[in-house]
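Recall the central idea of this unit: under ordinary conditions, the amino acid sequence of a chain determines the structure it adopts. In this exercise we apply that idea directly, starting from the sequence alone.
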Amino acid sequence: QLQVVESGGGLVQPGGSLRLSCEASGFTLDYYAIGWFRQAPGKERLGVSCISSGGTTTYAESVKGRFTVSRDHAKNTVYLRMNNLKPEDTAVYYCAAANRADCTSVASWGQGTQVTVSS
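Accordingly, the structure predicted from this sequence is:
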């Protein structure tokens, strides 16, 4: 059974950093893309970043230059490093295992982790 579990959220001041983790089980990162999405209160869920099974990475314009996605095959885990965080980055962050390289056709969602950027 495909499963992904996020961790690493929390409260951080503007300009601070966090690293989110997405641990995969039931599959390996060689065969699925992993996407990071976020949903702010009252807003739709939007894509933040994607790393394909081949290692190609993409980012939303709003996070380019600040967020970096990476993966550790030995730990079967994908990370989202978030630097220079802004209040508008506040949201529940989800990771997802996807069948397509562009992180569409999601096969499994995580439960989400809250990120709050506030002074």
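The mean pLDDT is 97.
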